[in-house]
Structure formats: structure tokens, C-alpha cells
């Protein structure tokens, strides 16, 4: 049985590895505190609303804040990348969700929602991905330059954070693995009974 457990763990690790998204590889060295907050970002959920992962959708909008940005300030914006971020309350005591001023080390905004060419104001309908765990979240958008580096950002107000109820903590691939393994153990049990009966009959 111990061997089965080892196999199971290895399988889980292998499946888990697929879900790890390297935090914005292109962002090495860019500091959030050095970026201009020129984007106005809004998300449709009411403050405190609970959304169900894999089911509910969010409408996201972004635009240039004309007060914060000088005319033509967005000439270098080539793309917009929108991310879902763990709200501070959901980062507490969890190093793997911590926000960081160095964006290459930031783990709070680890869920990429969409990236598209910058065209001033934009809008996107996002269905909360099935692998988004239960926590509270806010939304941050980055303006990227031609090299893909962040040059400006904007985010929803901290008091507007909303909650996501995850898919019962079990992702689809783990469900499949568990199904395969339990079918396997039922088969093993059947073989065991057949052998045991044979022994008795002898
Ligand atoms: C636009 O920028 C100004 C100056 O930074 C700021 O005071 C204002 O709150 C921003 N507007 C929005 C809607 O975020």
C-alpha cells in the first residue's frame, strides 16, 4: 500500500506542476512603486460578492485616467495585461500569495485574465477559471511597452474586493487521477479475494 501512496504523490506532483505559472517572466526588475498609476480599472462584482469558480463571470473595464496621465503618456503602451490578485486579507500568513514591489517576485497577482493590444479604453468578460481557489480578490491591469515590460498600472479599489468560492478544492485532473487510482484499488482488491479463495479451496 505504501508503494501506491508514493505513486499517488508523484502523480499529484506531476499534475500540480502543470498548474504552476511562472510569475511574469518578462517583468524582471520592474518595481510597482516606480510605475505611474494611470489606468482606471473597474470590475463588475459588488464589494463582498461571492463568485463561483468555473461558473460566474466578471465584466472588466479599463481606461486611461486623463487626470493622472499627461496627454500622449500612453503612446508607449502597446498592450494591456489584466490580472486577478489575492486581496491583502487572503495573503496573510501565506508566503506563496504575497505581493511584492519587485513584480518579478510578486505572487499576489498570479492569475492572468487577459492580455490584448492597448487601444485606450477596453472591456473584457471573464469567466472565473476553475483553478482559482477560495479567497478574496481584486483586479489589477498593467500597461506593457513593446518589450512586454510593465510601464503603468491601475487596480480596483481595495474596498471593492470580492470573493471567489473555489471548485471544492479538487481540480479536474486530480479528480481523474483519484478516479483511476480508486478503480485500480478495486481491481487489486478483487484479485486479492480471488487469490485468497483459491488458497482456501486448496
Ligand atoms: C485619476 O487620477 C487622479 C490623480 O492621480 C486621482 O486623484 C483620481 O482618483 C483618479 N481617478 C480615478 C477614477 O481613479
Automatic annotation (TrEMBL):
Keywords: Cell membrane, Membrane, Nitrate assimilation, Signal, Transmembrane, Transmembrane helix
InterPro entries to which the protein is assigned, alphabetical: Transptr_NO3_Nar2
Membrane-traversing stretches: 176-195
Residues spanning the signal sequence: 1-25
Pfam families xref list: NAR2 (PF16974)
Source organism, top-level taxon: Eukaryota
Keyword presence, Aminoacyl-tRNA synthetase: no
GO cellular component terms, semicolon-separated: plasma membrane
Nucleotidyltransferase is among the record's keywords: no
One annotated GO molecular function: nitrate transmembrane transporter activity
Any single biological process term in GO: response to nitrate
PANTHER family listed in its UniProt record: HIGH-AFFINITY NITRATE TRANSPORTER 3.2 (PTHR34806), HIGH-AFFINITY NITRATE TRANSPORTER-ACTIVATING PROTEIN 2.2-RELATED (PTHR34806:SF4)
Similarity-based family: Belongs to the NAR2 family.
Function: Involved in nitrate transport.
Protein name: High-affinity nitrate transporter
Amino acid at each position: 500500500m505504501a508503494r501506491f501512496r508514493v505513486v499517488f504523490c508523484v502523480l499529484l506532483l506531476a499534475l500540480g506542476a502543470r498548474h504552476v505559472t511562472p510569475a511574469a517572466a518578462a517583468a524582471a526588475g520592474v518595481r510597482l512603486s516606480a510605475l505611474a498609476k494611470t489606468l482606471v480599472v473597474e470590475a463588475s462584482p459588488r464589494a463582498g460578492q461571492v463568485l463561483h469558480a468555473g461558473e460566474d463571470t466578471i465584466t472588466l473595464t479599463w481606461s486611461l485616467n486623463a487626470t493622472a496621465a499627461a496627454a500622449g503618456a500612453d503612446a508607449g503602451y502597446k498592450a494591456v495585461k489584466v490580472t486577478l490578485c489575492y486581496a491583502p486579507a487572503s495573503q496573510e500568513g501565506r508566503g506563496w500569495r504575497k505581493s511584492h514591489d519587485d513584480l518579478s517576485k510578486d505572487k499576489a497577482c498570479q492569475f492572468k485574465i487577459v492580455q490584448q493590444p492597448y487601444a485606450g479604453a477596453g472591456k473584457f468578460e471573464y469567466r472565473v477559471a476553475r483553478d482559482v481557489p477560495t479567497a478574496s480578490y481584486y483586479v489589477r491591469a498593467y500597461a506593457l511597452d513593446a518589450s512586454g515590460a510593465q510601464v503603468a498600472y491601475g487596480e480596483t479599489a481595495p474596498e471593492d474586493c470580492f470573493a471567489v468560492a473555489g471548485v471544492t478544492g479538487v481540480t479536474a485532473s486530480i479528480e481523474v487521477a483519484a478516479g483511476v487510482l480508486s478503480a485500480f484499488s478495486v481491481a487489486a482488491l478483487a484479485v486479492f479475494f480471488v487469490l485468497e479463495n483459491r488458497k482456501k479451496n486448496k
